[in-house]
């Protein structure tokens, strides 16, 4: 990991993708990967900032994660899979102090799920 500009935004990547981590590492800004605990060893070995988190289901713990990231100084959460869009919406609603973001994230996720189902139906 190279030195990052502390004056630029601090982002949290929600989910696990080596390509996404590599891409965000090339930017001149701080980041942290929020991913399932099984990725922790890899992150430690490769000096990747990491917060372990299970994304099994959205519940009251999303608030806990949002406050944890807020205390770290994270500005925005970026989902890399549709399974983490709902989490990002809940976290960004807290980080950006805009409760409407959760509803917008849910609509975005539902729309992408409908499009995927339609494409799968066409393939079948």
Automatic annotation (TrEMBL):
Superkingdom, natural source: Bacteria
Protein name in UniProt: Carboxylate--amine ligase
Source species: Roseovarius lutimaris
């Amino acid at each position: 990991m190279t030195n990052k500009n502390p004056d630029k935004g601090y982002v949290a990547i929600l989910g696990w993708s080596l390509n996404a981590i590599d891409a965000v590492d090339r930017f001149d800004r701080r980041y942290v990967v929020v991913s399932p605990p099984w990725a922790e060893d890899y992150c430690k070995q490769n000096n990747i900032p990491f917060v372990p988190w299970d994304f099994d289901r959205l519940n009251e713990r999303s608030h806990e994660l949002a406050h944890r990231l807020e205390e770290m100084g994270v500005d925005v959460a970026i989902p890399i899979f549709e399974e983490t869009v709902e989490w990002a919406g809940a976290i960004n609603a807290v980080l950006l102090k805009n409760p409407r973001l959760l509803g917008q994230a849910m609509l975005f996720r539902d729309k992408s799920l409908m499009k995927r189902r339609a494409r799968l139906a066409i393939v079948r």
